[in-house]
Amino acid sequence: MIHFLFSAQVQCVVVAIYSGLAHQIWTLSAFLINLTTVTLYTILGVVIRKDGRISKIFKTSRGSNARLLRSLRVVAACVGLGWLMTMVVNLMTFIPDISDLAMFYTAAYAGIFVNVSIACNWFIYYFRR
After folding, report:
1. Which listed site, 8, 36, 55, 104, has its alpha carbon 20 to 30 Å from 15?
2. Is 12 contained in some domain?
3. Is 61 contained in some domain?
4. What Gene3D superfamilies has UniProt attached to this entry (predicted)?
5. What DSSP string runs through 12-31?
6. Is the pLDDT of residue 36 over 80?
7. How far is CA 13 from each of CA 18, 29, 117, 128, rounded to the nearest angstrom?
8. Measured between alpha carbons, how far is 109 from 106 in angstroms, rounded to an integer?
9. What is the enclosing helix (H) or strand (E) of 103?
10. Would residue 34 count as lying in a domain?
11. Cα separation of 94 and 72, whole Å?
């Protein structure tokens, strides 16, 4: 039987999975992925808006496709920006003078943006009809 003894206390919550270097790598990579996603969605939206052929397809069809495209844009913006805000708040845990408890609470409350952005999908898809 192998026993491992660690002196660090661990909270049993999702945000306490990573600590130390793993936390830094995960936070930075997630921030870069989310920033890239938001940038690509923005570029795609600009390209779709400027392309005349795609605009004609959505304008000629009684407005239902245009409403669907608008809903998809709003959902992509809510989810993408929710994740991006969560990662920005998580980047604040890299401040060197922050205590472990403050770092834990910052990471725990950063998830509120993701939860709100996911909850917005119901209002966008079903409530607006």
Report:
1. 36
2. no
3. yes
4. Rhodopsin 7-helix transmembrane proteins
5. -SGGGS--THHHHHHHHHHH
6. yes
7. 10, 21, 21, 35
8. 5
9. helix 100-122
10. yes
11. 34
Instruction: Note the residue count of the chain.
Output: 129
Range(s) of the domain holding residue 86: 18-127
pLDDT, position 106: 82
Q: Kindly report, residue by residue over 73-110, the tens digit of the pLDDT.
A: 788 888 888 888 888 888 887 877 888 778 778 878 88
Alpha helical stretches, state H, 6-99 = 21-50, 52-59, 64-91
pTM confidence score? 0.64
Determine contact, residues 51/58, Cβ cutoff 8 Å: no
Residue 84: exposure state from Cβ atoms within 10 A (0-12, 13-18, ≥19): buried
CB 95 within 8 Å of CB 71: no
Whether 51 is in a domain gets the answer yes
Q: At what angle do helices 100-122 and 64-91 cross, to 10 degrees?
A: 180
Read off the tokens for 125: 């898809």
